[in-house]
Specification:
Layout lengths: L1 H20 L10 H10 L1 H12 L36 H32 L1
């Protein structure tokens, strides 16, 4: 029986440390404080529910210490090497850019055609 109690205690401590070090935007379904109270009052059930429902598993972020100032910032900065560059333009903006590129290519072709016609006329 002491083994089971020790196992529950270790799971509870791990859940508490994980819940405390998470930023507020990485906690789901309840406020962070409610999860901490839930983990303390019902150690096994609260810890299992924290790992199953409470924390956000989507992206791996680097661990932060208790005093890390990034912990309190609202905007989550993804690691530069881990995330590819995203195109945040709307579809309309992308289509407009493509049309500008096509127009520029047509104008360049027209300029080349006129220059070659001038050179042929001068020779």
């Amino acid at each position: 029986m002491p083994f089971l109690a020790l196992l529950v205690f270790v799971i509870m401590v791990a859940a508490l440390v994980d819940a405390i070090t998470r930023r507020d935007d990485q906690v789901r379904h309840l406020p962070k404080f409610a999860w901490i109270v839930f983990i303390i009052l019902l150690p096994l059930v609260g810890s299992v529910l924290w790992f199953a429902l409470g924390r956000e598993w989507g992206r791996a972020s680097e661990p932060m210490s208790f005093g890390d100032p990034r912990r309190w910032s609202r905007e989550a900065e993804p690691p530069a090497a881990a995330s590819p560059m995203r195109d945040t333009r709307t579809t309309e903006q992308q289509l407009a850019d493509l049309e500008r590129e096509e127009r520029a290519a047509r104008l360049e072709a027209e300029i080349r055609r006129r220059r070659s016609a001038q050179e042929d006329g001068a020779n």
